[in-house]
Structures are given as structure tokens and as C-alpha cells.
Specification:
The protein is mostly beta strands. It contains 9 helices and 31 strands. The strands form 9 sheets. Strands 2-30-29-28 form a 4-stranded antiparallel sheet. Strands 3-4-5-6 form a 4-stranded antiparallel sheet, with no helix packed on it. The protein has a 4-stranded antiparallel sheet with strand order 7-8-11-12, with no helix packed on it.
């Protein structure tokens, strides 16, 4: 592993945190994400028994169904590669067009096919690429498990069109999360006689849990699929984001559908019920075009009894809008403790003292606690703090998350903890890596230890040059904030870039950056022109396991990692992590 000489920046951060040059190697890194079928893996949660929930993406040998691509599509793939290859890292122009058109592309050319399909996401005439996978680690073995995906008819090949987010695992070994339905091909004849294939699915997202480690799956059916008339049922949405040891589950689910959408579906003069439209488009395909934006969702707490019977409770909104306010008001429950107290976030007024809102009242999202039938905002001074989130709560009622504020004119997130039992709840914002660093707390254990991630670089960041992050641990009792990379061996091959969870054994579920032999889109090791192995940076799911022993003197070893080429790949990896694979999977909110 290459290390770089300590910079003034790194020394400044060390000084600010009060750390000496002698760092403690008090954790060992256990790699639980080295699976042969996926390039990237991400830790989500590990229970007190060492069993883990893990996410992954970028599967090798994605099962492209070439029989559904026509000559125009192959021409489009060739053109895409021709005009784009010089600007795409590590991809060449089409290598073997004949083999490509025969459905047997090289690994390089398969990558271009996948890019072509991803660029057409949402178009029902094209195969969908899901590429988010759920995994468990029982008895030291990390394995994929299937939630809702199905195999292509007559084959043993899964569609890989689903997005399967695993949120966590209980001490009993229950796994839970949220997954989409698979897109399956439907042959259709248009009015002009042309035969086409539409790729359709039954629902967008649905919460699930499994009490047997993934062997069987229990779906959480949203209220919109049971309470609405049959003609208004289009699959619905639900998500399970946390389950307590006492079998409380929280998340969100659809309770109704936007009336404008229902009118469009029933419209016979341009809508989905128009006979002229139906001549060229299946009704289900018409609905699918707009389905992701039609549901009104609510934060929900479910109770699961010993027989697996589920009862639900809608947790309620933070504010009551004006009668003429037609905007959707969203609320989400992200975590729940064993007492059934939940935390999350909801729309609230920017003016926290507002009692008579207008139809266009200014609003933002605020972290909330759901307790005793009440929804309570604990974000201080809405003029200074806004757009907050609560991600976890322990049995002592201490909640954690992040809040947005402006630091030196730049919007930043800052992690916090708050006692939800206090008569007046107050967010406490500890010192993190440095004043202008954005930080987020992801989890807290029963000992009051908080883990998360924060920025460790100080340059002016944007979408193309994000700041790198490191995982951290914060102890509420001692008020000690520490970069987790200071707790692993000086010569470790891993750089801890985020921490997702910490159990009551103080074992930390983290994601690390590591340099490994590079593989192509078919999973084959790649060599350079001289026949030497190529390398690349990937992210891996790891567990940080406490170990006894004396601290290591790292003063002779250079500060943390800067691998050759790491700067290029890290930005896209972080975006994947931030957008697609949150431990507490959250719906996009406008």
C-alpha cells in the first residue's frame, strides 16, 4: 500500500482533534465483502452475534437479453462507443462488432451494452438494469439472497432488474429492507402490426422481512393495496427501514394516490384509457411511465406478533397544512427502539412558531421523534438549522443524525445527538474533523457510542470534485471524536470511508476503500499491454473488530492513503454509496 507524506492539512486536522502522532491500533479489519460476483460491497449492519447484512452493486456478467435488441439498437451501441470512448475511463471503442451483434460481446463491448441500456432506464421497450443486491453473512460466509427477482422463463438466470436494499439484521437473525419487483418481458402487437416487447413490473418498492435469514420472504403490503378500490391498486409502495428486537418495524408506505394520476389513468381522451393509446401501448406500460410519482406516503410503525401477523399504525404528520395547500407532505420513520419510540423526519414550517399557515407556507424537512402518538420536531432555531434527519435511536432514547447549516457561507451537514426523553430536547453538535467538514451520524449503540462519516479534505467541493470522507466514532460520555483509521494497523491496506452501524459488542459495520486486481465486466482479471496485472480501487464491506494489545507507533508511517489513480474512481464510488445504498434507505424528497 502506498502512503503519502503528511501534509500540513493532515497535521492541522490531527492537531484540531487533539490526537497524538502515536495512534491506537485497537480494531482489526475483517473483510466480509470479497464476493466473486460483485465489484463493490457496502456494510449495512452487524448484530451482536457477528451476523451481517451487506449490500452490493456492479455485478459481473450482467444477463443482457440480446434477442430483444434490433439492428437499430446495435447501431446505437456502436455509435455510443465511437463518440464516447475517449472520455470514458478504462473503456475502449467496440472491439468486435460481429461478435457483439451475434450476442457474444467481449467484456469491453458488454460494458457498452450495459451503458446503452442504463441510458434508456424507464423506457419500457428496453431491458432494465437493477444492479443493487442484498447479501447476508452467516457463519463467516457472505452470500447473495434473492428477495423479489425472478428467473427468465425456461432458464436459471435471474433478471437482475430489481433493486434490493437490505437495511439490517436483528440479533435473532431477521433480515429486512426494501426491494422492487422484477421487470419481465411482455410481447405486444402495435396498431401497425409491429411486434414489440415491453418490460413491465408489478410494483415499484415493497418492504420485506425474513425470519429465517432469507430462506423465505414476507412482504409488507401497503395500505393503498388493501384500502383503496380494486381499480385504484397499482402495486403501491412500502419500505422497512428498521426492526427492533421487540419486533417493532418502521418505515413508510403508500396510503393514497394523487387524484391527478387517477384521472390520467381513466382518461379516454389522451390518457391511459384512450383506445388510440391502447392500440400502441399496454395499459400497464402507460401506468408504469408515471407510477413512481403518484403515491402519497406516510410514516408507519408495524408490530409483528409471534405468528408473523402484522398490524400497522400511521404515525402522523408534523404539521397541518392550509386547506388549500395541495402539496404532498412527507414523513418517514427511520429507526425504532425496543420501547417503540421511533425517529425520522417530516415536513415542517421554516417558521417554527407558525400556527396559521398559508397555502404556500415555506417548509423544509426536520428530524422528528414519534412518541406517545405525537410527532415532535427537535431542530433548534429553524433560521439557522434546517433539512435535518434522524437515523437511529437507542433504548435510552438518545437519537442521532445530521442537520444542515451554513459554515463560512457554505451549506454543510453536522452530526448531532439528542435526548428524546428531555422535556426540552436539544441537539448537541460535537466537534468533528474540522469546522467546515460535513459529517453525518449513522448509528448509536447502548453504550452511547456513535459512528458515521465526515469529510477530511478542505478544498472547495462540487459534484465533480467531492471531498473524501473517513469513518468516525464518537463517545458521548468521554466526548472523544476519533477517525476510525487511527484505530487500525498503520500498514493496513484498507481506508475506512464510512461507518454504518455499531453493535453492543462495539463491533463496527464499515465500508472501506482498498486496491485490488482489476476485473472486467465478465469478472476476468485484466492485464496491461506488458502482461502485468492491472489494479483498481473498490469499496468493500468490512467489520471493525475490537482487539486487545498495545497501541502502535505510527509516527514513522505516512498518513492515510492516496493510491495511484484513486482520485478518479473515488468520486463515482461515493456517489453510488450516497445515492443508492443508504443503510436507512430513504425515498427521494423534493
Amino acid at each position: 500500500m502506498n502512503k503519502f507524506v503528511k501534509s500540513i492539512l493532515a497535521l492541522g486536522i490531527t492537531s484540531a482533534l487533539g490526537l497524538s502522532a502515536v495512534n491506537a491500533a485497537t480494531y482489526q479489519v475483517i473483510d466480509k465483502g470479497n464476493v466473486s460476483s460483485l465489484k463493490y460491497t457496502y456494510s449495512q449492519q452487524e448484530n451482536n452475534n457477528g451476523e451481517a447484512a451487506i449490500s452490493g452493486t456492479d455485478i459481473y456478467n450482467f444477463p443482457v437479453q440480446f434477442q430483444y435488441l434490433d439492428e437499430d439498437d446495435f447501431n446505437g451501441i456502436v455509435t455510443l462507443a465511437n463518440i464516447s470512448h475517449e472520455g470514458v475511463h478504462d473503456l475502449l471503442n467496440i472491439e468486435d462488432e460481429t461478435a457483439l451483434r451475434a450476442g457474444n460481446p467481449t467484456a469491453n463491448d458488454l460494458s457498452w451494452v450495459i451503458r446503452y441500456l442504463k441510458a434508456r432506464a424507464g423506457n419500457s421497450l428496453y431491458q432494465e438494469v437493477g444492479d443493487i443486491f442484498a447479501m447476508t453473512n452467516f457463519n463467516g460466509q457472505t452470500e447473495l439472497f434473492n428477495v423479489f427477482d425472478e428467473k427468465f422463463t425456461g432458464t436459471d438466470i435471474y433478471t437482475r432488474s430489481t433493486k434490493e436494499y437490505i437495511s439490517g439484521i436483528t440479533n435473532e437473525g431477521w433480515v429486512y429492507g426494501t426491494a422492487s419487483a422484477p421487470y419481465l418481458p411482455l410481447d405486444f402487437t402495435q396498431s401497425d402490426g409491429e411486434e414489440v416487447t415491453h418490460w413491465l413490473r408489478d410494483f415499484t418498492t415493497r418492504g420485506f422481512f425474513s425470519s429465517d435469514g432469507g430462506a423465505s420472504i414476507t412482504e409488507v403490503i401497503p395500505p393503498s393495496e388493501t384500502d383503496l378500490p380494486e381499480e385504484q391498486r397499482f402495486g403501491g409502495e412500502s419500505a422497512i427501514l428498521d426492526i427492533s428486537e421487540s419486533h417493532f418495524a418502521v418505515g413508510y408506505a403508500s396510503t393514497s394516490i394523487d387524484q391527478n394520476a387517477l384521472d390520467f389513468f381513466a382518461d379516454e381522451t389522451g390518457g391511459c384509457a384512450d383506445p388510440d393509446v391502447l392500440d400502441d401501448l399496454p395499459f400497464k406500460a402507460c401506468v408504469q411511465q408515471v407510477i413512481e410519482d403518484i403515491y402519497n406516503t406516510e410514516a408507519i410503525k408495524w408490530t409483528i406478533d409471534e405468528q408473523g401477523i402484522i398490524t400497522s399504525e400511521i404515525l402522523g404528520q408534523l404539521v397541518t397544512p392550509h386547506v388549500d395547500d395541495v402539496r404532498e407532505y412527507e414523513n418517514y420513520a427511520q429507526a425504532v427502539n425496543n420501547q417503540g419510540v421511533a425517529v425520522g423526519y417530516a415536513h415542517g414550517w421554516v417558521d417554527e412558531n407558525e400556527t396559521d399557515p398559508s397555502a404556500t407556507e415555506q417548509r423544509s424537512l426536520y428530524a422528528v421523534v414519534y412518541k406517545d402518538g405525537q410527532v415532535t420536531d427537535f431542530t433548534d432555531d429553524h433560521g439557522k438549522y434546517f433539512d435535518s434527519r434522524a437515523y437511529d435511536i437507542n433504548d435510552a432514547g438518545i437519537a442521532i443524525g445530521h442537520v444542515n447549516t451554513f459554515v463560512n457561507g457554505n451549506q454543510r451537514t453536522k452530526f448531532y445527538h439528542v435526548d428524546t426523553n428531555a422535556e426540552t430536547m436539544e441537539m448537541i453538535l460535537p466537534t468533528d474533523f474540522f469546522t467546515g467538514s460535513s459529517s453525518t451520524a449513522r448509528a448509536i449503540n447502548e453504550d452511547g457510542k456513535i459512528v458515521g462519516e465526515g469529510e477530511v479534505e478542505t478544498h472547495n467541493d462540487n459534484s465533480s470534485t467531492p471531498r473524501r470522507t473517513h469513518g468516525f466514532i464518537y463517545d458521548i460520555t468521554s466526548k472523544a471524536f476519533t477517525d476510525l483509521n487511527d484505530y487500525i494497523a498503520c500498514d493496513s491496506d484498507y481506508t475506512i470511508i464510512e461507518a454504518r452501524d455499531i453493535n453492543d459488542q462495539n463491533e463496527i459495520s464499515a465500508t472501506a476503500l482498498i486496491r485490488v486486481p482489476r476485473r472486467d465486466s465478465k469478472g476476468v482479471l485484466m492485464l496491461d499491454d506488458k502482461g502485468e496485472q492491472q489494479f483498481e480501487d473498490v469499496v468493500r464491506a468490512v467489520t471493525l473488530e475490537p482487539i486487545p494489545g498495545e497501541i502502535e507507533n505510527c509516527s514513522a508511517v505516512e498518513e492515510k492513503v492516496e493510491r495511484q489513480g484513486a482520485g478518479f474512481g473515488l468520486s463515482s464510488v461515493l456517489l453510488l454509496m450516497l445515492v443508492g445504498l443508504r443503510r436507512r434507505f430513504t425515498k427521494r424528497v423534493s
